Request: fold
Amino acid sequence: MSVPSITLNDGNTMPQLGFGVWQVDSETCTDVVLKAIEFGYRSIDTAMIYGNEQGVGNAVRECGLPREELFITTKLWSDRHDNARLGLEESLQRLGLDYVDMFLIHWPNLKLNKYVDAWKGLIECQEAGLAKSIGVSNFTKNTLEDLFAYTNVIPAVNQIELHPLFAQEEMRAFNASHGIHTEAWSPLGQGSLMNEEVLGMLASKYGKTSAQIVLRWHIELGNIVIPKSVTPARIAENFEIFDFSLDEDDMQLIATLNVGKRLGGNPETADW
Ligand code: NAD
Reply:
């Protein structure tokens, strides 16, 4: 089973399936990331605010793989929107790495209103070789249009909340129309989807679990996906999604779960 590779708008490639580590403490993080790498994951999604960059970095060094075989993402917090390069240098120090594969603005923070400056800082980071690719997270149509108006670099990805209860069709289409890949955070709806009847039915039909059905739905839609788990059996299960595909009717059935329900913050109002 191999993870499809997504070619980004800057020519770099990124695994379509990665491993998220929000709410995993730094010490535990080293062990679970090592497990994930052992099971085949090569892309890890962390952030300054998760407080576990050090744990991720330790796993990168301990896993025995050459650095270039791994794809490490971290994110800029709002307290460094006015100096993104410093923010990244601090993250790199915690990670113990000399570059990241992807650096994202974590939230636009409309109240602070420094996201265009932050984006200019990310462009500088990419030019300096500290980040191979740069992108954003939780950006809306308006905030992306500001980046288009004031800079000439289009984000490679926009990482947004996306799962069957919140399918984000408009935002996915907007991203795609600008060559931006959509990356789904909370792809499993933070685990809240597991008892949905439709998913249980499809799980029986395909001989898979509800989590695998949801992750396969993301893959078929073309989303980059970064499920999180600290349980080794689930980390392995979430990787085993490349030996089957959902037919069109079943994709439509999953689409009926969309009720526009956010589980996390709203980028229009979040002041973090
Ligand atoms: P998720 O949708 O990946 O759900 C994780 C939870 O689902 C687990 O804690 C567990 O309870 C359950 N789960 C996982 N695998 C399962 C399985 N096989 N069977 C049953 N239950 C299972 O939620 P998440 O952690 O919020 O999102 C994933 C990643 O996205 C994060 O770790 C983080 O890296 C990223 N993220 C980014 C942002 C952002 O603002 N950019 C926000 C939230 C999350």
Remarks:
- The CA atoms of residues 157 and 181 lie 5 Å apart.
- The radius of gyration is 18 Å.
